[in-house]
Design a protein that fits this description.
Elements lengths: L9 H6 L1 E2 L4 E5 L2 E5 L2 E2 L1 H8 L4 H4 L3 H12 L4 H12 L3 H15 L16
Helix pairs in contact: 4-5, 4-6
Length: 120
């Protein structure tokens, strides 16, 4: 390989998601943006939210982690949206979090992950 040869970052080309501009959404009376651009490391961190170890953490921590990874929520707004979700049954919360992941471009409507998208 020479200095002129362009190196390919395999993690980035394998799983980074370049979905464009953030998407505005509302939930629990809060308007916020869902991110749509993710590096390979961002996608890896998001997928790690769904490991057996992650599921051992308290629900509040799991929700905060996902909201932080996917949205621009922070501070009181983040806490209020998380608290709202914690008052709902998991049969309501899970589809909401999957939908946020879908808007972000990281999940499909069936809940599976959308890894392997090429950066534009």
């Amino acid at each position: 390989m020479t200095d002129q040869t362009q190196k390919i970052d395999i993690l980035e080309t394998a799983i980074a998601v370049n979905g464009g501009e953030p998407q505005a959404v509302t939930l629990a009376g809060h308007e916020f943006n869902v991110r749509r651009d993710y590096t390979g490391d961002d996608v890896t961190a998001y997928i790690q939210c769904f490991t057996p170890e992650a599921f051992q953490r308290p629900a509040e921590e799991q929700i905060h982690t996902q909201l932080t990874a996917l949205t621009d929520l922070d501070g009181d707004a983040l806490n209020e949206v998380a608290e709202f979700l914690l008052t709902k049954p998991s049969l309501v919360v899970n589809p909401v979090l999957i939908r946020l992941g879908e808007v972000a471009g990281l999940r499909k409507s069936d809940g599976s992950f959308t890894v392997g998208q090429q950066p534009s």
